[in-house]
Specification:
single chain, 237 residues, alpha/beta, Rossmann fold, five-stranded parallel sheet, 5 strands, 49% helix
């Protein structure tokens, strides 16, 4: 598996980075698991944390809407279903930036494995589907440090909708893209929105070169593949 970092595991930012923050002394490992709700992402992360820590690797978890700075405000704002695309984008960017500066980078400097339950790619894909400028987004997320590995769990939209309905008995307004006016029917809107997100992820994959993992398979087979690739990554560091 290709390491995302250049040279001898030299950590770097995607763009301008964060002022006064240096990455030269960061010895930890940043692993990202991407995927839509219903892709099995959360289950795989739980399994990976247990496996990593059992094998002596101290692990820190981060994810969307977990910042102590804005997560509760973002949750409340989304409940009204009235956020503009720019406000929504900047809310998530603030949530990410706070976790990056206060959790991710300190953990990497301390030599931990940081396991991210989604990263800038989900945020960019969602925003691009909503018509945000890709160049503007790349600049916005130029603060992000390049991960050591990124795995995108890809599941067909038709399968995703069944998994979400089976788990929650309903569909999420934002995960269905109802704010985009794709369809008045939430089921139909979900399929159209998730198809657009999946297409955008494949476009981003050509830029960011992450692993696309077929997640239409059993959980055990996916776990086996992820462990094998992560073990090879850690062995090569």
């Amino acid at each position: 598996m290709k390491n995302h970092l250049d040279g001898a595991n030299c950590r770097r930012f995607y763009g301008h980075g964060i002022p006064r923050i240096k990455l030269e002394d960061s010895t930890g490992t940043l692993i990202v698991v991407e995927g839509a709700d219903g892709s099995g992402r959360s289950t795989q992360i739980v399994r990976l944390v247990d496996w990593l820590e059992t094998n002596g690797h101290p692990t820190v978890q981060v994810g969307l809407k977990r910042s102590t700075l804005v997560s509760s405000e973002l949750e409340k704002a989304q409940e009204g279903n009235i956020l503009s695309r720019t406000t929504l984008s900047l809310f998530y960017a603030t949530d990410f930036a706070d976790q990056l500066e206060n959790i991710i980078l300190p953990a990497l400097r301390a030599g931990f494995i940081v396991l991210a339950d989604r990263y800038i790619y989900t945020l960019m894909a969602r925003d691009m589907v909503r018509g945000m400028d890709e160049k503007w987004l790349k600049n916005l997320y130029g603060i992000a440090t390049v991960p050591d590995a990124v795995f995108y769990l890809s599941v067909e939209p038709e399968e995703l909708v069944q998994r979400n309905l089976s788990k929650n008995a309903t569909l999420d307004y934002w995960e269905s893209g109802m704010d985009l006016g794709l369809s008045r029917d939430m089921f139909d809107s979900f399929l159209k929105y998730q198809t657009l997100v999946q297409e955008t992820f494949r476009k981003l994959q050509r830029t960011y070169d992450f692993d696309i993992v077929d997640a239409n398979r059993s959980m055990d087979s996916i776990t086996k593949e992820l462990r094998k690739k992560i073990a090879a990554l850690l062995e090569g560091k």
